[in-house]
Specification:
Length: 85
């Protein structure tokens, strides 16, 4: 387990690097829409995680952590690239 600032900064750094990589791979096509969609997905995950902590639902936080690990992985980059290409 990491602290909130470490986990948040990792997610934001990975988000930026993913968008930059997709911008380069797709030659700037649809970068804005990809960033908006990917950012919305990341924000939804973070809101669900916060809701799980506030409501004291450990099963929800566990599942959202798994989803966040998938969203912030190379798999998400490959899926977004394949969908956009």
């Amino acid at each position: 387990m990491h602290s909130w600032p470490v986990a948040t900064s990792y997610r934001l750094l990975y988000f930026g690097l993913t968008i930059l990589t997709l911008h380069v791979l797709l030659h700037g096509r649809a970068t804005r829409w990809i960033a908006i969609g990917y950012g919305a997905l990341l924000a939804a995950c973070l809101l669900l995680l916060l809701g799980g902590h506030v409501a004291r639902l450990p099963w929800l936080t566990e599942h959202v952590h798994s989803l966040l690990n998938t969203v912030c992985s190379l798999q998400a980059l490959m899926v977004i690239y394949a969908s956009a290409a």
